[in-house]
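User: Is it possible to get a 3D structure for a protein together with its bound compound? The compound here is zinc ion. I've pasted both below.
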Amino acid sequence: MENFLLGHEPTVRLGIFLGLFAIIAAWELAAPRRTLRQSKALRWTHNLALTTLNSVLTRVALPVAAVGVAAFAAERGMGLFNLFHIPHPLTILLSVLALDMAIYLQHLMFHAVPLFWRLHRVHHADLDFDVTTGARFHPIEIGLSMLIKFAVILALGPPAVAVLVFEVLLNASSMFNHGNVRIPAAIDRVLRWTVVTPDMHRVHHSIDPRETNSNFGFSVPWWDRLFGTYRAEPQAGHEAMTIGIAQFRAPRELWLDRMLLQPFRPGDGTYSIGRRHEAMR
Ligand SMILES: [Zn+2]
Ligand SMILES: [Zn+2]
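Assistant: Yes, that's possible. Here is the predicted structure of the complex:
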């Protein structure tokens, strides 16, 4: 089973991505959480064009997959987990958790460091919040986070299958927690103990910097609870809250060319660093 999954890694990941995307997209039509403010055709065309561009670019520029880096580390006995004899299932569990915490910390850093925020604000500049927002990242941010992930894998030495599980989980949670889907409050409350729900992550896309700088987790909500960055609801409520950042509010900014240029445009690079402390208080 493990070998089959690893042998068919790109197909497994693409299949899960397309299947889940279709399910969440249909769910958004059947039970939307908010009325979209912008043209869906425009946003979907440009957000999905960016997603496609990203997968082509990473395949050309960084053809090494994270599972390959894990296999490389295992062969050479590199990384923390390769130093100890821990039962395989436990190593997988610990690896997935450690990688997820690393992504949480990386996300925090992308908000706190002005230069990184310039890249990451492309994700936040979407004026609506739905499944396509979950795949809307600047290509340089994608490349940078891949390099950070490779470094974490070399340091940790997780089993290749744990990396695959982690990547599939991260991808699936990102689509789910950006979904413009209505989930009854009682169910959302229960789900939130183990997964980041759309209502939880939507707070992170609020125009209010105190809310933007909370709920950094993608898969599990535990890191936000542990590190004090959890915020239950947006102050204005989910229906009325404003999505996006104060900069880049014209619909023209939703176009692919503008998204690619946004990191290089003048702007308040220190937008988030001072405000974070405010959010932590
Ligand atoms: Zn963010
Ligand atoms: Zn997001």
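The first helix runs from residue 2 to 7. Residues 107, 111, 120, 123-124, 204 surround zinc ion (ligand 1) (CB under 6 Å).
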